[in-house]
Amino acid sequence: MEEITEDPPTSAILLDHCHFSQVIFNSVEKFYVPGGDVTCYYTLTQHFLPRRKDWIGIFRVGWKTTREYYTFMWVTLPVDVNSDSAKQQEVQFKAYYLPKDDEYYQFCYVDQDGVVRGASIPFQFRPENEEDILVVTTQGEVEEIEQHNKELCKENQKLKDSCVSLEKQNSDMQAELQKNQEELETLKSINKKLEEKVKEQKDHWETELLQLKEQNQKMASENEKMGVRVDQLQAQLSTQEKEMEKLVQGDQDKTEQLEHLKKENGQLFLSLTEQKEHQKKLQQTVEEMKQKETTAMKKQQELMDQNFDLSKRLSENKIIYDVLQREKENMERENDLLKRENSRLLSYMGLDFDSLPYQAPTSDQGGAGQNPRLVYGNPYSGIQESSAPGQVSIGFMRLPSSDP
To answer: Where in the sequence does UniProt note compositional bias of the Polar residues kind (predicted)?
Structure first.
């Protein structure tokens, strides 16, 4: 891997908050020979997923934050993270960038969030045959070396203690990781069930929403139709009110019924206005209006039948009146003819009709009693002298009947 000049992602997270058990370093030497490249071998644990900005740094032992790295290399992302080969990884540090002193260092795997995911055991950079070199020193130098060795031993003991602590922490972290992985699996299972349940609930809600939209559209259409129907009913009621006013003008009982219907009609109008806000009660009110309309129609039909009967009787009476009127006119014409004929006869006989005493026809007068058409007796009897002096009996001619 080529060295990249870009600074790696770091953080100020302390050592206690790092997770050293997720990446394990393998085959770490106790010391590396200066002047040569160093290959770092590491293994990714089962549940750890590397990311593009992860890196491995060389840190001096005793570091506190990831900002204290000496050098670093970017990690290589495996092609298939689920294969066994993807778990075994390596990076190579060039000799030019390695430390030149003999201090203790260690490899650390840092993710792109600046959090340490694994750390190796400490190692040094020194020659391989350093222990075989014969050094001639003075007593002072020997004491100084011994003192330095004591310090190194103390530091080595500290490093061993630190290593033991790290191993214990690593073991604890492995157990915690295992526990967390089990909890994660449980949470994943619960999450999966919840997602399925949420999906089912979402589908159910979407279906209910579609049904509600369809019902809303149907209700809107029904409301429009009901509004048209209400307008029609109002127009019908207005027309029927006018017709009822005309039909019941002379009838007090029917006037009271009409007033009652007017009150009911007013109540229906108010009810209709309220029912525009309360759609659930509208159908019931319309049914009541239909029933009242049917009753009104029946009453109207009864009145029309009565009017028809009265008109029929009036027509019959008019026909009878016309017949009687014609008969009266015929009788008057016959009377006029008889009067003229009588006047003519009297004039013919030289008598004055107005000066003669009137003799009402009786049932014992000759032909007048036998034939009802002889109104004034026998016209051919002439002038008969009565036994009483001064009385004259006058007969008249029989006129032809006007009947065919």
So the answer is: 381-390
- Looking at residue 54, which CATH number applies to its domain? 2.60.40.2840
Q: Which residues of the chain have pLDDT under 50?
A: 1-3, 130, 132-135, 359-377, 380-399, 401-404
Angle between helices 252-277 and 282-349 (to 10 degrees): 150
Residue at 31 is within a domain: yes
Tell me whether residue 171 is in a domain.
no
Radius of gyration of the chain (CA): 69
Separation between Cα atoms, residue 221 and residue 225, nearest integer Å: 6
φ and ψ of 110, to 5 deg: -120, 130
Phi, psi of 212 (to 5 degrees): -65, -40
| pLDDT tens per residue across span 92-144 | 999 999 999 989 999 999 999 999 999 999 999 988 654 544 445 567 767 77
- Interior CA angle at 198 toward 192 and 199, to 5°? 90
How many alpha carbons fall within 13 Å on the CB side of residue 11? 13
Range of the domain at 49: 23-124
Binning the chain into helix, strand and coil, the percentages to the nearest 5 are: 55, 15, 30
Helix (H, G, I), strand (E, B) or coil at 278: coil
User: What is the chain's length?
Assistant: 404
* pTM for the full predicted model: 0.34
Task: Identify the CA nearest to 368 among candidates 352, 350, 380.
Answer: 380
- What order do you get walking across the sheet with 23-26 strand by strand? 23-26, 38-44, 88-93
What are the tokens at 318? 């008019």
- Quote the number of domains for the chain: 1
153, part of any domain: no
Does residue 38 lie in a domain region?
yes
Encoded tokens for 63 = 């570091």
Q: Are 110 and 57 in contact (CB under 8 A)?
A: yes
Instruction: Identify the DSSP state of 280.
Output: G
* Strands of 75-207, DSSP E: 88-93, 104-110, 116-119, 123-125
Q: What is the pLDDT of residues 167-218, one digit of tens each?
A: 788 778 878 888 887 888 888 889 889 988 898 888 889 898 989 998 888 8
